[in-house]
Specification:
three-stranded antiparallel beta sheet, alpha/beta, seven-stranded mixed beta sheet, binds S-adenosylmethionine, single chain
Length: 291
Amino acid sequence: MWDIKTLTPEQFALFERLIYRTTGIRMQPGKITLLSNRIRRRLRHHGLESFEEYYTLLTAGSLQGELEEFIDAVTTNETFFFRTEGHFEWFAGEFLSELAARVVAREHPRSLKVWSAACSSGEEVYTLAICLAEARGMLAGWQLRILGTDISASSLAAARTARYEGRTLEHVSPERLAKHFQQAGDGWTVRPSVKKPCEFRTHNLLKPLGETGFDVIFVRNVMIYFDRESKRVAVGHLIDALAPGGYLVVGPADGIYDLLGDMERRSSFLYRKPLAGGRSGASAISGGRHG
Ligand SMILES: C[S@@+](CC[C@H](N)C(=O)[O-])C[C@H]1O[C@@H](n2cnc3c(N)ncnc32)[C@H](O)[C@@H]1O
């Protein structure tokens, strides 16, 4: 029987390959204790005594819904409101003003489509929604939509509940808390008026979303866990989902600058798809294992 305490290097390699195939995430060997701890919880949940038995049942599909639970257990879901505040300052300021000018010039419909890809428990989505609520005057009569997606079902369940407490709210000012949230016991829920344009859906970044025309996509602090091949596939799908002239906002350590083809680099976190005649992402980046 396998040792239930810590994965052996061989066991680690098996789970690591499964995680990579399923999510694109590369687990470094240094994470063996972390991964052992996370998987051990799943073993206990099922009353299993060995990593081997769990792996066999998991990959055979004998534990109903377990692959979803396994992915939940092994992904890192840390997030918080107004994470990397400058990105939201750009969104609420320069981006909305430029879009409004394009609407006035009849170069863009009175609509805004935002995708928060790998949104975890929803803080990024609701931070964007707060920015839109604060620009309500400028956006009167516009069709607004913020789509939040993630591979983790439990994170999305939390996002839909929209109830938060503690450290995640640290960067929300008391004025914003009072204006955009309602007290709920020890925590706070996002007000229905702020939630209105938000929608959540399960999605794996290694697959196409099946929807295009986004004016801006936030995809932050997820590709840091991907290897180059997973990044290449995900970036291709993201570029395809952007409208011509749409923006991609990336995290400080996501490391995809050399995979962005003819996207125009605006700053360290910001890239723009050409307005017309630009190449399409996934279709322009050929080949690959996940593709
Ligand atoms: C660290 S959180 C980042 C959340 C948010 N974007 C932020 O910057 O605060 C990373 C999220 O990526 C998700 N994730 C990991 N692999 C994914 C994949 N292949 N497709 C979609 N989401 C994925 C995880 O479930 C997790 O919720």
